[in-house]
User: Which sequence fits this backbone?
């Protein structure tokens, strides 16, 4: 992108904000199409998804146009990028849920979470599975199925710091271990990692969750899974290697 093109694009945005001329929207979409396409390709897990993500990104761009405040002295491309990334991220998550998690399970899991929160506050303890089943008029099998399915779609904060041990103030995160680099690209990097996680087996995802979300040590993971600590270390290294390779291929 040349400096001249940047000025021209920003001038189009200013002109629209001053005139609200709807015909300018098409020109703005064309002017910022490289930005939308770049973000869509970064966030896409499959190349087949790119056209849909571009359309979603275009809607995000137009949404940003309506809320942009030129007096804040922030470049429109910077402001719009956040909205575009957010809209594409929500599209990907919604699509994944629709494809992989039946609506009935989504609804049941939502009710179960609400019931657990309500009763925990009331009883000062979490309700048991039989209590949940009785309270919501479900079978225990249905409760367990919904909880298992719902937990598998819980979104992990990939840059959330985790203590290396209970007696240490040192912290780490999944992003730290993947060595993704550029801090200015954190928003895209997090989404790339989210997409890359899909290449892992269920066992590898479980290990990643235990280590980087729940903060368990390798020894604690080994005890929980009844395998050796060396085996845990090897499996984690393999999982992280797969993630790095997938992210590298996406950049």
Assistant:
């Amino acid at each position: 992108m040349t400096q001249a093109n940047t000025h021209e694009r920003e001038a189009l945005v200013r002109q629209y904000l001053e005139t609200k001329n709807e015909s300018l929207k098409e020109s703005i979409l064309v002017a910022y199409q490289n930005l939308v396409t770049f973000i869509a390709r970064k966030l896409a897990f499959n190349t087949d998804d790119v056209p849909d993500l571009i359309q979603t990104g275009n809607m995000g761009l137009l949404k940003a146009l309506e809320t942009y405040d030129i007096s804040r002295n922030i470049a429109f491309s910077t402001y719009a990028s956040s909205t575009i990334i957010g809209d594409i991220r929500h599209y990907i998550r919604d699509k994944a849920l629709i494809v992989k998690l039946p609506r009935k399970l989504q609804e049941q899991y939502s009710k179960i979470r609400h019931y657990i929160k309500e009763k925990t506050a009331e009883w000062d303890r979490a309700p048991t599975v039989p209590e949940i089943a009785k309270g919501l008029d479900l079978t225990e099998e249905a409760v367990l199925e919904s909880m298992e399915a719902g937990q598998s779609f819980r979104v992990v904060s990939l840059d959330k710091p985790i203590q290396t041990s209970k007696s240490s103030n040192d912290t780490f995160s999944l992003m730290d271990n993947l060595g993704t680099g550029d801090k200015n690209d954190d928003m895209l990097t997090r989404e790339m990692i989210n997409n890359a996680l899909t290449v892992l087996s269920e066992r590898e995802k479980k290990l990643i969750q235990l280590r980087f979300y729940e903060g368990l040590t390798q020894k604690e993971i080994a005890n929980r899974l009844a395998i050796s600590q060396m085996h845990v270390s090897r499996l984690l290294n393999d999982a992280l290697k797969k993630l790095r390779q997938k992210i590298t291929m996406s950049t």
